[in-house]
Amino acid sequence: MALQRTGYEPTRTVHKIADTVHILRAGRVVISGAPDGLIERSGVRTVISCDRPSSSEVPLPEGALSQEGRLVFEVDNVTAALRSLHEWSASSGCEIANLTIKQPTLDEAYLRLIGESVS
């Protein structure tokens, strides 16, 4: 099982040097808080994905979407989601391949908090 962590690294610097971030829109502060708190308040979720099994007879794990040959989960609790994915793998006999975990970034939180779409 391969694991990749993805995400926009420069925003991690903000987490290291800023206790409080102020988000501006049209020159006014619309929200302030600690970087992690802003991400949590934004509702942007962690995305876990892995290769979809080649067999179409295997039911998808609960909460999974199938996108471009991958199983995709948007989750709040990464540990619980990975545990569930592992249990599905064990019961179905399917290998979890090319697992990725993409944590929400401050950039995505910013866009959500100011009302822009997050792709």
Structure explained in plain terms:
With 119 residues, the chain is α+β, with helices and mostly antiparallel strands. The chain folds into 2 domains: 7-44 and 104-119, no CATH class; 45-103, no CATH class. It contains 4 helices and 7 strands, in the order βαββαβββαβα. The strands form 2 sheets. It has a 5-stranded mixed beta sheet with strand order 1-7-4-6-5, with helices on one face. α2 (35-42) packs across α4. The two termini are 27 Å apart.
**Rg over alpha carbons:** 17 Å
Count, helices: 4
Gross geometry: elongated
Structural class category: alpha+beta
> Mean of the pLDDT scores?
85
Return the domain count.
2
Q: What is the N-to-C succession of helices and strands?
A: EHEEHEEEHEH
Residue fraction in strands: 25-35%
Q: Write down how many β-strands occur, each being a DSSP E stretch of 2 or more residues.
A: 7
Extract low-pLDDT stretches.
none
Distance between the termini: 27 Å
In a few lines, what is going on in this structure?
This protein is α+β, with helices and mostly antiparallel strands.
Descriptors:
elongated, alpha+beta, five-stranded mixed β-sheet, 4 helices, 2 domains, single chain
Would you spell out the secondary-structure blueprint of this structure?
Layout: E1 3-6, H1 10-17, E2 21-25, E3 28-33, H2 35-42, E4 46-51, E5 65-67, E6 70-75, H3 78-92, E7 99-102, H4 106-113
Parallel strand pairs: 1-7
Antiparallel strand pairs: 2-3, 4-6, 4-7, 5-6
